[in-house]
Model the fold of this input.
Amino acid sequence: MAVRKSHGHVVIIGGGGTGAAILHDLLLRGFTATLVERGELTSGTTGRHHGQLHSGARYAVGDREIARECMDEVRILQRIAPEAIEMNWGLFVALNEEDNAFAPEFIAACQESGIPATEVPVAQALQMEPQLNPAILRAVKVPDGTIDAWRLPLHFFATARANGGMIKTFTEVVGVIRTAGRVTGVRVLDHAAQNEYDIAADLVVSATGAWAGQIAALAGIALPVTPAPGTMVAVKKRLNNMVISQLHPAGDGDIVVPQRGLSIIGSTQWQTDDPDTVEVPAEDITYLTARAAQLIPAFASTPFHAAWTACRPLAGSSGSVEDGRKLSRDFLAIDHGTTDNTPGLISIIGGKATVLRAMGEQTVDMICHLFGISEGCVTATTPLMSHRGYYNPALAGERAPTGGAL
Amino acid sequence: MKTVRFRIARPQRAEQWQEFDVPVQDHTTVVDSLEWIRAHLDRTLMYRHSCHHGSCGTCGMVINGTSALACTTRVVDLDLETDQVVTVTPLPTMSHIGDLAVDPTPLFRHFPAAAGYLRPSEANRGSTPPEEVPQYKRFENCIECGLCVSVCPVINLREFMGPAALAAYNRELEKNPGRSDELLPQVEGAEGAAGCDRHLACSAACPTGVYPAKQIVQLRKKIEGWQKNRESGTTGSAGDGSPVVPL
Done:
């Protein structure tokens, strides 16, 4: 491939799923890019995700567009990273009459969003998932799945690194450099070498989620982001193959995600000030275990494996956020040149793991617009390298099994 | 809530070791404790972590002398009567980055190329998947944490591909038997399956039930059968998973 001139150098702060997808997309569109992460990759919110790949069914009643976007992305991820997904579909189950009455509206909303949600007889649902609560009143099948929250982003990082992207872990941003009002780089602390240095940038993207307020503050910008932690609990056995959700408008502890040899119940949600000091509330473990047992009774008698929290970022309600360009209904990319008279800095807030590729596409569309270039996105049709390719490029490819052995 | 003292190796720094007192509850894990230290006492502490539930495989370290995942090791389960403090050091046999953080690149040096990461799911055997799902699948047990390699007595004695890579070869051949002629020559030498001295330390250390030592035994059997076929003039396979045919 001919070497072409870079459109510019972009520094991405944050090694989560969002940063991974932005980095990958930038390189395919002719930018040079450096990603810095203060710890290991996906050590913030991304890696602690319970792993649900959302068909969008959970969101369809509230917002058809988000639901449709999720469905589109599930299909795309199956094409570009098939080995990072347990694609076993999901069941929404009614536990009570109120849930049961919600079903027609739920199915209609899914179908209007392009999600093939179909009711299956309870007896058939129990054949699909023998450990389901046999007292369920109704079941609806949807194309949910499970991702590996470390290895799916690593597919993006592996591909980006092979395409020339610089990835610097244990490299913490300690300052944002401004020249004549414009952001022109970042000052970083290399934790391993214990020294500080500057990285120049034509644009800086803060993909730091619940930490975005802290980064914006380094640039003298007030960006209200509220960290919203939630607890998850895993037990030491895979009790289900399909994702099991309660058929109701979203609430706490209403989804059991199978993953590898585990089943995981998620989640609770509260709000906090500092995403670094969140601890697991002991009462959440009891509560979530009881909630899981309503969906899958055996959950309560299966040995405890782990409990942990992850901090979602909630966009604050003050002026700067509301003025931001809303790229999707739950995902904001804020050009601080427009909102805070500080060009050269973009903050990304919100989003969800399922749509990480789309967040990358929309953010890089915005970056191309700022640079005045037209360069189409090709990430939806570009297969990703294996996660192992991140550590050994000879392991870039993956193939599906041809045999049926366990 | 009680307070436990952590003694943490920081080999790249002048002090070499540093101690921190950490409040712990019954469910507090070693990784929770490291997070607490970084948030409250020392923002420069380096360690790898991601999923916090034993799925990603990043947080392997040596805790009171035992290779373990920090995220599924509860502090109250450690024998603090004997050890008094929780001593944590980085995982050996990896490249050291700083403090407890290592680069796992050496782990992946000998893995088989083009190996997938999904396998058929054994959960609820006999259940009927929806018509859109030909077969329930799940991720491989191996989370590529490197604990098995860190305890392998052979690795430090001589060139040896190691339990994680050899187990990955066996798993790949279970799923894609048609690759025998391609993959078995890569593991039949002294550095491959024959190099295992059956100490079984790998199987004891594995946090996800891969039992690498058992995988190596199975791999040896595959090699023996394949070598026998080779000597008797039959191919190991047709290369596409179809039944073995004589030449």
Notes: The CA atoms of residues 48 and 197 of chain A lie 30 Å apart. The radius of gyration of chain A is 21 Å. Chain A is about 30% helix and 30% strand. Chain A has two domains: 1-49+149-224+316-400, 88-144+226-315.
